[in-house]
Amino acid sequence: MPGVDPVSTSTVVSRPIEEVYEYLLDIANHQEFTDHYLVDWHLTREDSYGVGAGARFKIKMRGNRFPWMDVTIAEAVRPHRIVEVGRTGKFNRIRTVGVYELTPGPGGSTRVTFTSETEPKLLTDKFLESLGVRGMVKRKNAKALRRLQSILEDGRDRGQRTTISGGARKPASNFRL
Q1: Confidence bin at 140 (pLDDT 50/70/90)
Q2: Is 153 a member of any domain?
Q3: Does the N terminus or the C terminus of the chain have fewer Cβ atoms within 10 A?
Q4: Is the pLDDT of residue 161 over 70?
Q5: Which residues contact 141 (CB under 8 A, 6 or more apart)?
Q6: Which residues are paired to 117 by β-bridges?
Q7: Looking at residue 159, what DSSP letter applies?
């Protein structure tokens, strides 16, 4: 059963495509530009970079009884495409896909397009999504891309970077048994 139509937003960042790609490929950086509506971030593994890196967070939305969402980087095609797959909703039954597409622009700039799509499992999930979620997602993602542009171009509007829960785990990080 298809979900709500995909929602796309885009912006142009005045940075080279490789730099934007490297920043987006580290999922720990995503909290910096999405923390206005995605909160309580936690990494799902120690390595936050590349395919397999993931995070769990809450979606701030009025009336959302099941706010937790998980995403994992499933595909990375250097330097043009990053695909995140995940789940959200009651019992994590709603599948999600987020795609960052990067294209080089004039003067060393990069066009970043983010497309998000959901696949609700039940008719009730689809009905709840139809009650204004599409517009909210488009507005929030547009703001996130503006913040991404601001962070990469001049370091402004930096939020907090995600870390792994529980503190140090590696022997070289002064963890004591």
Answers
A1: very high
A2: yes
A3: C
A4: no
A5: 7, 9, 114, 116
A6: 97
A7: -
1 has a pLDDT exceeding 60? no
Q: How far apart are the C-alpha atoms of 126 and 62, rounded to whole Å? A: 17
Listing DSSP states for 90-143 in one string gives GGG-EEEEEEEEEEE-GGG-EEEEEEEEEE-SSHHHHHHHTTTHHHHHHHHHHH
Beta carbons of 28 and 161 less than 8 angstroms apart: yes
What DSSP state is assigned to residue 62? T
Q: How many domains does the chain have?
A: 1
Q: What is the CATH number of the domain that holds 71?
A: 3.30.530.20
**Which tokens go with 5?**
């139509």
Q: Is 170 part of any domain? A: no
CB under 8 Å to 146, separation ≥6 — which residues?
11
Instruction: Answer for the pair 144, 11: CB distance below 8 angstroms, yes or no.
Output: no
Which residues, including other chains, have CB under 8 Å from residue 20's CB and lie 6 or more apart? Answer: 13, 79, 102, 110, 112, 152
Q: 78 is in which domain, residue-wise?
A: 7-165
pTM: 0.84
Q: Which one-letter DSSP state was computed for residue 74?
A: E
Identify whether the C-beta of residue 96 lies closer than 8 Å to the C-beta of residue 85.
Answer: yes
92, 120 contact by CB (below 8 A): no
